[in-house]
Amino acid sequence: MSAGLAASETPLAEAYDLALVDLDGVAYQGHLPIDHAAPSLASARASGLDLLFVTNNASREPEEVAGQLSSLDIPTEAAEVMTAAQACATLLRTRLEPGARVLVVGGRGLVTAVREAGLEAVGSADDAPEAVAQGFAPELGWSDLAEAAYAVAGGAWHVASNRDMSLPTARGFAPGNGALVAAVSAVTGVEPDSAGKPSPTMYRMAVERAGASRPLVIGDRLDTDLAGARAAGYAGLHVLTGVSSARDAVLAEPGLRPHFVGADLRSLLVAHETPVLTDGWWRCADRAARVVDGRLELDRHGPAGLDVVRAACAAAWDAADAGEPVAADSVPELTA
């Protein structure tokens, strides 16, 4: 796929057969609903788009995730949820035989996934585990990380459910699993394998489970959701309801760029126009952007909207790919 924006003459819900939907920042925000999420997903399903919710959270069971979605008017079955814990367990089975011992450093979701994969979950490095499965859980402490370090230093295969450095909470950003994994790596000097986003492993497992041929990744984070889409070779929709902003998209490196940009999940229900280069300006509908001497210029001041976001992405990406990176201080905050 090209590293630029893509076009869709039909609504995305009709152009693709499976949506791999991120949770926090896309389907909900913490324990709160996101405006337009539930009715948009319902309309997308009615158009024939299958949904599979894919999360880097490894601490919760799929049934718990499905229950939360259903409580927010997004009816979901456990089979429509894939967690990083499940992906981690599947990755472990690529090298471990049934019954192999795995030191689980994480929540009950990871313990369950490891056991359901036919592996034995143990709690100490003294149990001689063949691997360490590490996932986030708020109750983890120093002793848990120490056990992981002892096991990895002793030769156990280190597999992380994900490597998100931060975790959004109601009070702001807190250390994520990646920060805890980094603590173990700093001690052992061992770089772990990872099953979660931005590794394409979990996306590919989800697509195989669903039997889809035209998947669309939907996420709010460029460094995990959309980077994973690029790594897997799938189209990615960046919705501006979570972590990464429109400005972040404009400044994104090729491996982090979305194929589509939308304000929220209503963007599933519309066609997407791609910017066109005309007279030195990248134009999308009635808005335009260009890069001059390494600085982004917009055609006029005023409310941004998605058209100027798309035009700015096209102009900035084209310039960066031609060896003229855009000065970050020339890119304003853009609203959709």
From TrEMBL:
Domain GCN5-related N-acetyltransferase-like: 288-329
InterPro entries found in the cross-reference section: GNAT-like, HAD-like_sf, HAD-SF_hydro_IA, HAD-SF_hydro_IIA, HAD_sf
Protein origin, superkingdom: Bacteria
Molecular-function annotations in GO: hydrolase activity
Keywords on record: Hydrolase
Protein's name according to its UniProt entry: HAD-IIA family hydrolase
